[in-house]
Amino acid sequence: MARISLRPPRTLLVRLAAWYSRRTYGKVMDPLMALGHHPRVLFSTARFEVAVGRWKALDPALKHLALMVAAARINCSWCMDFGHWEGDRLGLPLDKIAKVPGWREHREDFTALELQVMEYAEAMTESEPSVTDELAAALVARLGEPAFVELTAMVALENMRSRVNSALGLTSQGFSDDCAVRPVPPVRSAP
């Protein structure tokens, strides 16, 4: 249950955001309506998301895997639900997407580069990031600096999205009614 009303004041900005969301995604996205309570936050977020959509240095499939790992680590069911739908829209194999939350147990289903990207996304998502110099160097060597920077920015953005959605109590919205992807709680290493 959302911790904030999903019925913000019906300003022009909120109506435009709802129209765009309905047109693009088939329904009005709950995060937009939650942010609609603060027009400047909604406007700034929407503007940034449009700009992010133009970033093309990183392969879309790798980007999607990184976003799904971050959302799964934070345990954001809204992001996982939307991520499954978006993976389908991108034409990614849904059986592979379904294995992302437990990717370490399904290593054989991913390429070496995909595993590195998911490891990086997971390391970035830790409360104290645990990215190693070796992992970063390996990814820079395989992806190139522009794609590595985009990967880093996308994982950071998904951390923000997932943390905001989770804190606001936003849960699955039915983007994928038969969603086989479920977030799993993070496994913490012993001190």
Describe it.
By secondary structure, the protein is an all-alpha fold. It folds into 2 domains: 41 residues, no CATH class; 108 residues, AhpD-like (Up-down Bundle). Helix content is 60%, strand content 0%. It is built from 9 helices and no strands. The longest helix is centred in the last third of the chain and has 23 residues. The C terminus is likely disordered.
How are the elements arranged and paired?
Elements: H1 12-25, H2 30-35, H3 39-52, H4 60-74, H5 77-89, H6 94-97, H7 112-125, H8 133-143, H9 145-167
Specify the biggest β-sheet: none
Do you know the CATH topology of the largest domain? Answer: AhpD-like
Helicity range of the residues? 55-70%
Radius of gyration from the alpha-carbon trace, in angstroms: 17 Å
The share of residues in extended strands comes to under 5%
| Number of helical elements | 9
Outline: globular
How many strands in all?
A: 0
Low-pLDDT runs: 178-191
What is the oligomeric state here? single chain
Order of helices and strands: HHHHHHHHH
Q: Give the structural class.
A: mainly alpha
What would you give as the CATH superfamily of the largest domain?
A: AhpD-like
Summed up, the domain count is: 2
Level-1 CATH class name of the largest domain: Mainly Alpha
